[in-house]
Structures are given as C-alpha cells and as structure tokens.
Amino acid sequence: MAKIFYVMGKSASGKDTIYKNLTERQPQLKQVVLYTTRPIREGEKDGEEYYFTTGERLNELRVEGKIIEERTYQTALGPWSYFTVDDGQIDVKSDDTYLMIGTLESYEKTRNYYGVDLLIPLYIEVEDGKRLKRALEREFMQKDPKYAELCRRYLADEEDFNEERLRRCGIDRRFMNDNLEECLREILTVVVE
Ligand SMILES: Nc1ncnc2c1ncn2[C@@H]1O[C@H](COP(=O)(O)OP(=O)(O)OP(=O)(O)O)[C@@H](O)[C@H]1O
Ligand SMILES: Nc1nc2c(ncn2[C@@H]2O[C@H](COP(=O)(O)O)[C@@H](O)[C@H]2O)c(=O)[nH]1
Fold first, then answer.
1. d(C-alpha 6, C-alpha 192), whole Å
2. Which residue in 16, 70, 145, 155 could disulfide with 83, CB within 3.0 to 4.6 Å?
C-alpha cells in the first residue's frame, strides 16, 4: 500500500525548505504537485512548485469530479485558489512513498479522501516571533515585497492552525524547525524506517 507523507505548518515555518531537502536526500519520495490560480512568481516553474492554472480550469475539474480538496483565500491581491486533483499522480495500490505539502485543512481533506492509513503528517513548528522574523526577512529580499499579504497570512494562521483543529486532525507530533539539520534528522527517523 502507498504511503503519503504530508508536510504542513504555518506560514514561514520552513515547509518548502524541508520539502526540497527531503526530496533531494530521499529521491525515492515521489513529489505530488498541487494546483493554484495564483500568478506564477519569479523563479517558479509550472509543474514544479505548482501547476499554475485558471479559475476556469478549476471549474472544469470540479465538474469532472476530480477535485480532492480546494481552498480559496481573499488575499491582498485578489482571490487565489489552491487545490489537489485526482490526476493520477498517486497510485494508492502501489508501494510508492509520496511527499505532499499543504495546510492543515488540505491535509484533513486529503486524509478523508485517501484514508487515515495512507497519510502520515509532518507538522513543522517554529516559535511565532522567530517565524514572523523569518517571514519578514524573506519578504524583504523580494523585488516587490508584499507586506500586507504577509500580515494577512500571519494572522490567518492563528485561526487556521488552532489547537482544537490540530487535535481533530490527529497531529500529536511536532517537528521543531529551530535548526534545519536537526529538524530534518528528526523527520528522517519517520520517513526512513
Ligand atoms: N531552520 C531554519 N533556520 C533559519 N531560517 C530558516 C530555517 N528554515 C527555513 N528558514 C527560512 O525561513 C524562511 C521561510 O521558509 P520557507 O519558505 O521554507 O517556509 P514555508 O513554510 O514554506 O512558508 P510559506 O508557507 O509562507 O510559503 C525562508 O527564508 C527559509 O530560508
Ligand atoms: N492556512 C492558511 N493557508 C494559507 C492562507 N493563505 C495561503 N495559504 C496557504 O499557503 C500556501 C501558499 O503558498 P505560496 O506557494 O502561494 O506561497 C498554500 O498552501 C495556501 O493554501 C491562509 O490564509 N491560511
């Protein structure tokens, strides 16, 4: 039976950094690419970070019954949707190990879709002050920093990742990302059994 490791955590907790490191160090992990209608950013490639698509295509996929989960945020730059599609990337009957990245909400819905036995959560945590500092430093480095969007995300995380939701989703282990190498070492004890 397939296994799906699901990386999640609040904004700037280090999910992307951890995801990339895991795929480099553990090439047997198959990457599952999600979809978004948000504009592609400088340095991103279609099919790598996401499949960049349109609201019209999202509608078609809805009609085809292929949407596993979707989220739309009223961002400081307009509505952006992110979604997971049953597009053949995951073969549940195989013995493959997959790596996905998302939010607590997307994790919960993906788990409901594929079943609790397939999904293994990798919840990344960083103390809020440190996380905000990392988010700000990352934004500062951008050519066109979007500070309002950063603040919206930071505040939304409070509600989206509240303790009651974490409990409901069965998140009983947290991987602290103070030090990247230590965090990866801990995660690898779960990923490489
Ligand atoms: N252990 C660490 N120590 C210091 N900086 C880190 C560490 N892990 C990640 N970072 C940095 O923190 C910032 C946020 O990391 P990253 O972009 O991976 O977070 P994310 O959770 O994917 O964020 P988002 O959900 O907002 O896209 C990046 O600039 C990254 O280089
Ligand atoms: N829990 C929340 N997640 C949010 C919110 N706005 C966006 N997001 C999630 O973040 C990533 C966006 O990543 P990026 O590649 O566009 O930097 C994606 O998984 C969204 O679902 C929010 O308000 N709350």
1. 14
2. 70
